[in-house]
Specification:
- The protein is of the alpha+beta class and 629 residues long.
- It has four domains: 192 residues, Beta-Lactamase; 83 residues, Beta-Lactamase (2-Layer Sandwich); 154 residues, P-loop containing nucleotide triphosphate hydrolases (Rossmann fold), CATH 3.40.50.300; 147 residues, no CATH class.
- 38% of the residues lie in helices and 16% in strands.
- The strands form five sheets. It has a six-stranded antiparallel sheet with strand order 8-7-6-11-10-9.
- The two termini are 17 Å apart.
- About 11% of the residues have low confidence.
Length: 629
């Protein structure tokens, strides 16, 4: 193995940098100390077909980033630099700027299709900004790999409304031209992209600033407000104006402002509870969000299937082909146990598809009353029947025009209704009750069921023709108990600032539990503990619900995640399952799992992280904490 670069080599260039920037780069070098520089040189970019698949999966990010990339690209071209957009894994998706610098950038694989995460390219602006979650510039010899020292790079993360990193915007040029202004530029344009993504939300948007003068977009605070009057999203400017952090997500908006929900479309004075005044506007998007009560499922009724606002890599691997399928007119069928987050995944598919500008219309097929099915689904004309609205009504399928129909619990639909639905799905048109006019429709189709539909077809309780119409793309969502990273997931769930805290023996019991209700049950138990023990600082095992203490999971369970099994060939080399017992120390369990994964993958952190079901940055932090790096 080649001798790695020394930290002292980079330290000379850090002398003139700010203390915080120097500290970021020093910590990055420490993280990269175990990497073999010879193994990281000259990576081959992925095939164009595979890159296009990744780009398609990041369609929303690319679309909203395009205006900022174009503006920054004009400046980059004049400054002999390149502007690059990478996704949350560090993979470069797009480049533009100075053609004269392209050949030099290609020599060090600074191009689309190459991953620039720290684990792949050592200390660099994209990878380090991704790991630390803050803007950073890396100049010349500050790069870990000597081949990259021809570069001067500046990168800033692009955040979602909940604080997750969606991607990284980077401006790179020759090392001899460090361009001190570049970091401020990429920060400004990265914030513009984040704001553009936030403003695309169908939720109400509270936009505020310190005075009534029109200010530049990056400096306006934006809060998304859900139907419960809670804050569902924010931008960095809002956090700064409110002197807080991402913990404000989920808190009531009236905790921060007086009378925010009474604002109109024109700027008005808004008072913070401490007396500080802002100029604010409350925008209400035109997208329809309310669906008929008998069949509507609230948008936030289910938690994220991962307990986090973002989707982990294995779930994205399931969603990406579903997005491609629905974009080409194919139907997607989601199957999995109750509580595995089928509607949440369906909403992610909708958000990433080309139907995202239209409505997401969930229809609970088990709750459709047979006597009202035609009026609920197809709508009716004025005066169609006694008690009908004078102006008539649009059915749910019409409301989904140019959007996505989500047929939830399709296996619970009676046979007679299956026949009526099949015709609409085949012909893509509806005829409202009392009308002679047939209305053509365009929509993406996602169905879901916890039942085994194929067995129902064999048993004659589900129409075969409807089944084959629904399952062009068939996806099975993994159960919570099969997740290999369940210990870490539970630890993150129950150690958040707004959560209760659990002892190691309590978490060990949660790991052993079979979780028949999956993620829905997990969130229910968390809410129950908050209610039962509001003043307890630490929840012990005997305080957990009796069903958790009475139903341990079979200890032969290897916890292989279904969506990982086909993704990681080397997982078969795993020396065996890590089984928790009530007496197992959580940190010892974590360390044992890490050691096994690292050994199974010959010290390759990227593959070990995949096998454990966590992000590389998470594994690096665990390794550092355990003193294993």
């Amino acid at each position: 193995m080649a001798t790695p670069p020394t930290l002292q080599l980079s330290a000379r260039s850090l002398a003139s940098r700010s203390q915080s920037t120097a500290s970021i780069i020093e910590r990055s070098w420490q993280r990269c100390a175990g990497l073999d520089p010879t193994a990281l040189r000259d990576p081959n970019p992925m095939r164009l077909a595979d890159l296009n698949i990744r780009r398609e999966a990041q369609h929303t990010l690319l679309t909203h980033a395009q205006p900022s990339i174009a503006a920054l690209g004009t400046l980059a071209g004049a400054a002999r630099s390149l502007v690059l957009l990478a996704d949350a894994s560090g993979l470069i998706l797009h480049e533009s700027g100075a053609k004269a610098f392209l050949s030099k950038a290609r020599r060090v694989a600074l191009q689309p299709g190459v991953n620039w995460a720290e684990s792949s390219r050592g200390t660099n602006a994209i990878g380090t900004a991704l790991f630390d979650g803050r803007a950073v510039g890396v100049h010349g010899t500050e790069h870990f790999l000597s081949c990259n020292r021809i570069l001067s790079c500046h990168a800033a993360p692009i955040f979602s409304g909940k604080g997750d990193i969606l991607g990284v915007l980077d401006l790179s040029g020759p090392a001899k031209d460090p361009q001190g202004y570049a970091l401020g530029l990429v920060q400004m344009y990265a914030k513009q992209i984040s704001n553009r993504l936030l403003r695309d939300s169908p939720l109400r948007q509270l936009v505020f600033q310190t005075d009534s003068t029109e200010s530049e977009d990056p400096y306006q605070g934006i809060l998304l407000i859900d139907e419960r009057q809670n804050i569902a999203g924010a931008n960095e400017a809002a956090l700064q104006l409110l002197a807080t952090d991402w913990q404000l997500i989920g808190t009531p908006v009236n905790q921060w402002f007086e009378g925010a929900l009474a604002l109109g479309n024109d700027p008005e004075r808004l008072r913070r509870h401490d007396g500080k005044l802002f100029a604010a506007t409350l925008y209400v998007p035109n997208s329809p969000t309310s669906i008929a009560k008998p069949v509507h499922t609230q948008a936030n009724a289910l938690p994220s299937p991962l307990g986090q606002p973002h989707l982990e890599a294995c779930m994205q691997e399931l969603i990406a082909p579903a997005v491609r399928a629905i974009n080409t007119g194919l139907a997607v069928l989601l199957q999995g146990e109750t509580g595995t987050g089928k509607e949440v995944v369906a909403r992610h598919i909708h958000a990433q598809s080309h139907w995202h500008a239209g409505s997401f219309i969930p229809i609970n097929c088990g709750a459709l009353p047979e006597s009202l099915v035609e009026s609920e689904l197809f709508g009716y004309a004025a005066g169609a029947f006694t008690g009908a609205r004078r102006e008539g009504a649009r059915g749910l399928l019409q409301q989904a025009h140019k959007g996505v129909v989500f047929l939830d619990e399709i296996g619970d639909m009676p046979l007679l209704l299956q026949t009526r639905l099949l015709r609409v799905l085949q012909e893509r048109e509806v005829q409202p009750l009392g009308s002679e006019k047939r209305i053509p429709l365009e929509f993406g189709l996602i169905s879901a069921s916890h039942r085994n539909l194929k067995s129902m077809v064999a048993g004659g309780t589900f129409r075969a023709d409807l089944y084959y119409r629904l399952q062009d793309m068939h996806i099975t969502l993994p159960a919570l108990r099969t997740r290999r990273d369940l210990p870490e997931l539970l630890h993150e769930h129950f150690t958040r600032p707004d959560s209760v805290h659990l002892s190691d023996d309590a978490i060990a019991l949660l790991i052993r539990y079979a979780w028949p209700g999956n993620y829905r049950e997990l969130h229910s138990i968390l809410r129950r503990l908050r209610c039962q023990y509001p003043s307890e600082r630490l929840i012990q095992a005997h305080m957990l619900p009796v069903e958790i203490q009475a139903q341990p999971l079979d200890q032969t369970d290897a916890r292989v995640n279904e969506c990982d099994a086909d993704q990681i060939p080397a997982i078969s080399a795993h020396p065996g399952p890590v089984v928790a017992t009530p007496d197992t120390d959580l940190r010892a369990l974590e360390l044992s799992a890490i050691k096994r994964a690292m050994a199974a993958h010959q010290g390759n952190v990227s593959l070990a992280a995949q096998a454990l079901g966590v992000h590389r940055s998470t594994l690096y932090r665990r390794l550092n904490r355990q003193g294993q790096r």
